[in-house]
Amino acid sequence: MRVETGGNRLNRDRAVRFTLNGVSRAGLAGDTLSAALLADGQVLQGRSFKYHRPRGPVTAGSEEPNALFTLGQGGAQMPNMRGTTQEIFDGLQAATQNHVGSLRHDAMAVNDLFSRFLSAGFYYKTFMWPRAFWERVYEPIIRAAAGLGALSGEDSVERYDRAWAHCDLLIIGSGPAGLMAALTAGRRGERVLLVEEDMRLGGRLDAESFAIGDDTGAVWAAGIAAELASLPNVRVMTRTTVTGAYDGGTYGAYERVGEHLGTIPDGAPRGCFWRIVAGRAILAGGAHERMIGFPNNDRPGIMQASAVRAYLHRYGVAPARRIAVFGNNDNAWRTVTDLQAAGVEVTALIDTRDGVTPTVDCPVYTGAQVVETRGRLGLRNLDVRDANGVHRVEAECLAVSGGWNPSVHLTCHMNGRPIWRDDIAAFVSVAGSVPNLQAIGAANGDFSTAAALRAGVEAGGGGEVPKAEDGPVNITPFWHVTGVKGRQWLDFQNDVTVKDVTLAHRENFRSVEHMKRYTTLGMATDQGKLSNVGGLAVLAELAGREIPDVGTTTFRPPYTPVPVAALAGRTARGQFQPHRLTPSDGLSRERNASFVEAGQWHRAAWFPEGEETTWKQSADREVGWVRNAVGVCDVTTLGKIDVQGPDAVRLLDLIYAGKMSTLKPGKVRYGLMLREDGLVMDDGTCARLGDDRYVITTTTAAAGEVMAHVEFCTQALHPEWQVSAVSVTDQWAQFAVAGPQSSALLQGLLGHELTDAEWPFMGCGPVQIGGVAGRLFRISFSGEMAYEIAVPARYGDALARELTARAQALGGGLYGMEALNILRVEKGFITHAEIDGRISADDLGMGRMVSPSKDCIGKVMSQRDGLHGPQRKQLVGLRAVGEGRLLSGAHLFDVGVEPAPDADWGHVSSACVSPSLGAIALGFVVNGRARHGEQIRALDLLRGNDVICEICDPVFMDPEGGRMRG
Amino acid sequence: MVDLIEKSAFSGAELPFVAGGLTLDEAPIDALWSVSPYAGAQVPLDLQVGRCGQNTIWAGADMWFTTQAPPDLTGIAAVTEQGDGWVALDLTGDGWGHVLARICPVDPMLISQGVCVRTDLGHMFALIIGLGRGVRIMGMRSFAHSLHHELVEAMQSQAARQRM
Predict the structure, then answer these.
(1) A953-962: per-residue pLDDT in tens?
(2) What share of chain B is helix, strand, coil (3-state, %, to 5)?
(3) What is the ipTM score, two decimals?
(4) Chain A residues within 8 A of B12 when measuring between CB atoms
């Protein structure tokens, strides 16, 4: 219910309308979803995971286990959103989760009746019989029942940013400790970044009735926030949760940019994932209050005492008219006075400790425990047991305080473990667990306001400390009630009880890591923030050990859930990787080309013309143009590396298997590069343009790899050599001009003859195309008379159009990757389909290309036993016998024999249907070179392909190469 | 006689692009050469590491760009033409650092006038030069449209956030 006092976050004059499960509801501006519902008297806000028990909010913050909602619909639907942190806005659509039928009448609540059969690890002991039922019956049922919220299945419409932030000092959390650290360091001129999870600065200062100096905590915090905003060297980010600590002083953080708004401006992101790089960092993230285990301690209305105070002070809400308080420490007592000051009836203060005298004015039970609760859809009353017996207390809300857990998570993200302090009965972090990260204030076990302020000032560089309360921590550990029947919940979200931990221990899952996985305690979206320590305490009891001996499990990022889309940011969908466009891209699109991706490049695959409807029709036509007239193809994408210097030739002899030192100026040589392990890395050409100047080419997708390899050689292997290599792939637009009419085309373009004498096969040199200085190479990947012509890339588009027009005039035109592939398979020319990382030079039939008279990278290893001889899979051609086409990836087996893994003789690496030769392929067969003429079976069971083929020479046409040599 | 016409790598891209008080525009590159001194060689040019010199730009390990045709450096340094291989966009205006922070990991405060940084820009490698009033972002030609798109999107996002 709403009370008149408190509500320091509210604008009581502004109502906000939202819907819950399709029904119109209302709250006040400043409310969270759970606060608005509590104000409305609705304490039932969810159903538990396994048993579908009615649940209400336990907290007022991001550690909430129960009050989870699905917000939005369709592409904007977000499941498992915490009602305790979701600010309401006009038009917010919220739905409760995990019930069949209504929230009040959940059909799945029947699970609770079968709880005996659904305890920890039940799926290891049930659903075993009959075997056939598992896949068809049990799994679909379990799958449908599992999980809490659901995705819509539609593509997300929201966009997320990623960004970097840099600072000298990162302060995580803006309670009293964080604020004072930011103020102190900020006034000293440090570059400070203050990051706060909540919607405004102050931490719990606006959730308590503590004063700082003469101001309420909330007013004081607002004053500090204003001064921080005025300092140019201080940057403040609210609604931002630091999610993880990483190497090098880097922290991940998720900022909820638009989650509290109904509409966001076009182009704005819904959230932003930050990578923050900090010189040093201070963790002032506070602490989480623990619950206590007692029978049926999970009813709606049972919540943290600190949450009850937070709802009162921040939102002017009391969860019920009659409230009782149950705790094991002095801090719980202020709940009574705060509630009574707001006019709420407190029906009991129950303290587990003997001999304490709480300074409160309500019925008090000391040395007492809650032993039972009642009320199915919400707490109605409870039983208290003390030395005098059992007493009934009427209350619709029970404020529980089992102590406080400092929020140590970030300090343990690099495998650090926290240490136990008996005086506060809690874990704290060990200094240095994360380099340059220091925990202060409540995050470090210093729970009083004064201690937090002091710690903040010290961490910020020293100065005056404002006056505030400095109450000691008086706590006696109390984890759960004993000697009573009834399930006691530890992990609310995953529905794990004390009984489950006991069961795990009995079944010998005794280490904390095993207990966690067996029971799933701490594995839900709240990551055990409220349950971990309670679970450890039970385990310690069972093992007869102390809590610190049991230890904790590993803490991992993210601290709170992060949308995966935020981790992707803008690099999603079409922008997953950059797009590299060729100089002829514009022309290709005008021609309605279809494209294929090669690495990051987009290359035209075929150019449809006339009545053509399939790629094969276009590709066959283009193949015909190249074989009979002339074709033009953009080959800019192949890596081009300029190698220069007095020692250039030594570098080339090192990286190429063949000898490049005998290459003369104006000549081009084909070469293989080997890896250190002796297998082939890449093939390409090396052209000598001048005395000490070369250009080497690489396959498109391996350009980066080869460049890195060359850099390694020049930087690490021989830094003393006078040689330099630089990429010129983008500098030169390069086109293949191939076919019987290629010389005629280029002679027309260049205005002079191209004689065999001046331009022999594998020759190169400078040419002028009008006023533009270009390069010409007489090389061929098609097997026809061919050239490649290059100009500076700014002229690439113009040259492409010029070449295309001239080719058309000669009865040819543009050809794309599909045609190029058919042409090169016909000629047995290899690509990385063949060079797949397992292939040696000898496998390719190119063993003699590894020069015997010089060393090269990979030379020694290539001579290992096992990389030579008849047991190796060797490159062959394959020609289909009869009907059917070959598929690359098919494996090769003897004809007429049952195929088996140990009778697998090789595979098909590249296949096509040649317009002139039919179904052909390149592949690798054991001892293939000795098996020409034999038949073999190509089998691809995944695609239902089964073809008999003949092993033959990989060069299917013009084996002497007369067409390209001229 | 064939007359080949030049075409900008940004042809078809919206430039200049203005959003949130910032401007993105092409900085056309007429000519550019890479100069990589050989081991131990002395090059008669103003070569500074991490900074622009007179007509020179630091472009990475042992490499500089120069905007003027270098003298004959045979035997001293490797020289290649790069005027077509690289493109440049200028991002200028108050708050350019916020836009850059969305796609580049380098601290904008370090990129003051004359500073050259070789880094990542949204999965592409880039050379960023401080202009004082902003930055010049150089990338490889084939990435031009992706570069433009990333920057425009970051500018739009930042401009939209300013309206929130």
Answers:
(1) 999 999 999 9
(2) 20, 35, 45
(3) 0.97
(4) 586
